[in-house]
TrEMBL record:
Pfam families: AAA_16, GerE
An example Gene Ontology molecular-function term: DNA binding
Highest taxon above the source species: Bacteria
The species this protein was found in: Friedmanniella luteola
Protein's name according to its UniProt entry: Predicted ATPase
Domain HTH luxR-type: 851-914
Length: 914
């Protein structure tokens, strides 16, 4: 019977009821050791009538085995895996060792888990119970947290359990709601004590035990066994010490020490591996002289729990007490015996038992052991191929410790760092790289180490340090490995094109000998990328653009997403909107197909540039919203910075009420997270947003202040029209002329229509009210006709209309003001639309009102789903593309139908969505 947990039971019952009705949820049960978390999960399973109950728990011995806990959770549903889409199905089977495969992206495993649970929920609601969450292997934990964050309209409930101190180490407020277990109330203390004692307990004793145990259920369960009948009835004094939470380890250890030496040996074996089977424990015990008599004694002690053929110590505190009480030599002997027991009949297989055996051999090793190190490296490679990066990092790091040769140690430390970084453990990766660098002698190996060091700095550290690392590494390895040197130099060149320069430079001619006519497309692209970024950094725009255009044909042949990303970024820097969009659309499609979630995020971030420039602001919102949701789903808060910045800018331009909230969230993220090379970008987009907000509010000086603080050259050119306008409105013609001159130089070198249009626009504003201004405005609009940047064109139409009206040419002004008004309305740029409408009224004409029925306001997710459905995709197809469940698609589609008033998919085609 569960005592004193009625409110918690009621909360969980509500979640079960909601799941029956199609509303998914997840919750984390938190509490100190002994507060009854596992008991509450047991009770929830009993109460889940009509549910399919799936259960798993974190096991310390399996914490280094990728997807072990997830496999145990989903194994009862293995017959339904066939219903999962093929890429996800294969990912699940490879992750669980049921199918061979190459390198596996863990995101596909998480997505497959979501799909499988959704499929199960179609026939009966599903309850997933996940105990001891911190001890789950990281791959399983990440997959289940991803599912928990993506649940919406499925018939699924996930209940996690973790100790307070452990939960805080890897969960953030973005993860799942919490249910905190508090100390038991006095009435519950009494009922629990009397149940355990089998007799009444005196009131003063109840009060004393409640106070001394802090209402901790486990301590209260232990107390009656430590007290006499007289003490429980109140006739005898209570002892000065009781098995309180902080003393329970000692209590359990005392109970263990009352066992025979042979039974204590079995306890140590069980504590050393909490995923032991009975046969394995018996084999290991016999090898150390502990037979059936000792086994029976250990079972009767109550310190052990047998669940089917799985043997576990009763509580984690028992395990830690027994392990810590043993000497290092005793623990090594126990691990050696367990390794030998797992060898029995196992052959040389590469399954989970082989990995467990290897870990026991590693724990039994005293000093370096190359044979064990080799086995452990193989275990790490298997984990890495399945996407178990944290498990792989642990195994590679331990293999490095056991290696006798420095070169092997360095290679394994690098592999450990690579996997730590992939698992999101940046600080740990940096420490491992420092250790690897200290023992690496070979230049190519050092260059590989430095490549990862630099990329970590780019993503989450100092971009200036990254530039120096790349240049130094390229110089050091050029003679031995020109391709490595070229790659590093290209990375440094990309940073320099961002204005990031450490001052380090390659000596002239370092890579000049590396020019071959039959280079692979990737190598050719790297060469051209390096040449173009160097030209760009020197503001040789014409040379850079010529080199870019040469690189474009090679880029599409490269079939390398890294190359596509770099060329797409180069196209962005050089103002080629079409090339930028083409590379990142291709990268996004390929990354989606492969389930490469971080690359999907990056492509979504970068696509926002060309979507913004093209005036497809609905697409910007969709991309940013998807990136924001995805970053949260995979527990990467730093990756929310870029989409939050774009959403903040759009909110400012469109005059939306959510501006303040978005700005606050983005600013907080910038303050509390390292964003690496994106730090300056996010800061500049927020400056742009503040400038827009101030300008639309009539404060030209404040607007100009924010615009002058922008440092990113790409953003400065993208925002050139409003920047120049702000300088003119703030009566700073010197700054307006300087910014216009910059655009003229860029336009002359690039011959890009949009750049020529902006340069003419700036000259027109500076020319004042005469015929020169008129001619310049008309020139700007001629260039805009083929530029593909409708927002800048609308700004020019508005400014020209204002110019004509002030010149007394009201009829001529109306045509331009109407075009500006229509464009601003299409963009939902309400503040500027109101300004254009006011100018139109001042010209003597009233703007037509749009039919509001065609201006359906949907959330970005609803909009994306509606557009995919309009293309003829089924709910299942949309779900697979958007990485959500078909039920969630149906949920969003119902909202679309309600908001739009349509009743069928066909009617969606007649609506203007945005």
């Amino acid at each position: 019977m569960l005592h004193g947990r009625d409110p918690e039971r009621a909360r969980l019952a509500q979640l079960l009821a909601a799941a029956r009705a199609g509303q998914a949820s997840s919750v984390l049960v938190r509490g100190e050791a002994g507060m009854g978390k596992s008991a509450l999960l047991d009770d929830t399973a009993v109460c889940a009538s009509g549910f399919r109950v799936l259960r798993t728990a974190g096991l310390e011995a399996e914490s280094a085995l990728a997807f072990a806990a997830l496999h145990r959770l989903l194994r009862p549903a293995s017959d339904r895996v066939a219903a999962v889409p093929a890429p996800q199905r294969r990912a699940l089977r490879v992750a669980f060792g049921e199918e061979d495969g190459g390198r596996l992206d863990p995101f596909l495993v998480a997505l497959g888990t979501l799909t499988l649970l959704t499929e199960l929920g179609e026939t009966e609601p599903v309850l997933c119970l996940v105990d001891d969450l911190p001890w789950l292997d990281a791959a399983s934990r990440d997959a289940l947290l991803f599912v928990a964050r993506r649940l919406l309209a499925e018939r699924v409930v996930i209940v996690f359990a973790a100790r307070d101190d452990e939960a805080r180490s890897f969960l953030s407020p973005l993860d799942v709601p919490e249910l905190s277990l508090r100390p038991l109330a006095p009435a519950a203390v009494r009922s629990l004590l009397e149940e355990r004692a089998g007799a009444g307990v005196a009131d003063p004793v109840v009060d004393a035990l409640a106070a001394r145990t802090g209402g901790n259920p486990l301590a209260l369960v232990e107390a009656p066994g430590r007290l006499s009948a007289g003490q429980l009835s109140g006739t005898d004094l209570l002892p000065s010490e009781l098995p309180l939470t902080e003393r329970m380890e000692r209590t359990f250890l005392d109970r263990c020490r009352r066992l025979s030496p042979e039974a204590q040996t079995l306890m140590l074996l069980a504590a050393a591996d909490d995923s032991l089977h009975l046969a394995e424990l018996r084999r290991a015990g016999r090898a150390l002289g502990a037979g059936e008599v000792a086994f029976g004694e250990m079972e009767r002690s109550g310190l052990l729990r047998v669940d089917g053929d799985l043997v576990q110590v009763r509580h984690p505190l028992v395990r830690s007490a027994v392990s810590q009480a043993a000497t290092a030599a005793e623990r090594r002997v126990a691990h050696a015996a367990l390794a030998a027991a797992l060898d029995h009949g196992a052959g040389a297989g590469a399954g989970a038992d082989a990995d467990r055996r290897t870990w026991h051999r590693a724990a039994a090793a005293e000093g370096a052991d190359d044979a064990v190190a080799e086995e452990l490296a193989a275990t790490a490679a298997r984990a890495e191929s399945r996407g178990g990066h944290e498990a792989a990092s642990l195994a590679y790091a331990r293999a490095a410790e056991l290696s006798t040769r420095d070169d092997q140690r360095a290679q394994r430390l690098l592999a450990a760092a690579r996997n730590a970084y992939a698992a999101g453990r940046t600080d740990e990766a940096e420490a491992l790289l420092t250790s690897a660098r200290a023992v690496a002698d070979e230049r190519r190996l050092r260059a590989a180490i430095d490549r990862l060091r630099g990329r970590i700095e780019v993503a989450a550290g100092s971009a200036v340090d990254a530039h120096r690392i790349f240049i130094t590494a390229a110089r050091d390895v050029a003679a031995q490995s020109p391709v490595q040197a070229l790659e590093m130099a290209a990375y440094a060149g990309v940073l320099r094109s961002h204005g990031i320069d450490s001052g380090a430079a390659l000596p002239p001619g370092t890579l000049s000998s590396f020019v071959e006519p039959d280079d692979a497309p990737r190598v050719r692209c790297l060469k051209l990328l390096l040449e173009a970024t160097d030209r760009e950094a020197d503001q040789d725009w014409a040379g850079a653009i010529g080199t870019l255009r040469t690189a474009l044909s090679h880029g599409m042949a490269a079939e390398d997403r890294d190359v596509w990303a770099n060329l797409g970024n180069l196209a962005l820097h050089l103002g080629d909107d079409a090339a930028h969009r083409s590379f990142f659309i291709r990268m996004l499609a390929a990354a989606r197909t492969d389930g490469a979630v971080m690359e999907v995020l990056y492509a979504l971030h970068r696509l926002c540039f060309s979507q913004y420039a093209a005036g497809d602001w609905s697409a910007v919102r969709r991309s940013a919203d998807e990136a924001l949701s995805l970053a949260r789903s995979i527990g990467q808060p730093a990756q929310t910075g870029t989409p939050l910045a774009w959403l903040t800018l759009l909110a400012a331009l469109q005059g939306r009420d959510d501006y303040d909230d978005l700005h606050e969230r983005a600013t907080a993220l910038l303050t509390h997270h390292r964003l690496g090379v994106m730090d300056g970008f996010v800061a500049d987009v927020l400056r742009w947003a503040r400038a827009v907000r101030a300008g639309l509010g009539g404060d030209a000086g404040e607007s100009l202040h924010h615009f002058t603080r922008m440092r990113d050259g790409v953003l400065a050119r993208l925002a050139a029209t409003p920047r120049i306008s702000a300088a003119v409105q703030a009566a700073d013609p010197v700054l307006a002329r300087a910014w216009t001159d910059e655009m003229e130089r860029f336009a002359a070198a690039s011959a890009l229509p949009w750049a020529q249009a902006v340069a003419c626009y700036g000259r027109a504003l500076l020319a004042g009210t005469g015929e020169e201004a008129t001619a310049l405005f008309e020139g700007s609009l001629r260039h805009h006709a083929g530029a593909g940047r409708p927002f800048d064109a609308a700004r020019a139409e508005l400014a020209y209309g204002e110019h004509l009206r002030r010149a007394g040419r009201r009829v001529d002004a109306r045509e331009h003001l109407k075009r500006a008004l229509d464009a601003f309305r299409d963009l939902a740029a309400d503040p500027l639309a109101e300004r254009a409408a006011a100018e139109l009224r001042a010209s003597g004409e009233t703007a037509r009102r749009r039919d509001p029925s065609t201006l359906v306001q949907l959330t970005p997710t609803e909009l994306r789903i509606a557009q995919l459905v309009r293309e003829g995709m089924s709910n299942k197809d949309v779900a697979e593309l958007c990485w959500i469940s078909p039920r969630t698609v149906a949920f969003h589609l119902r909202n679309v139908f309600t908001k739009t008033g349509v009743t069928s998919r066909g009617e969606l085609a007649r609506l203007t969505l945005g």
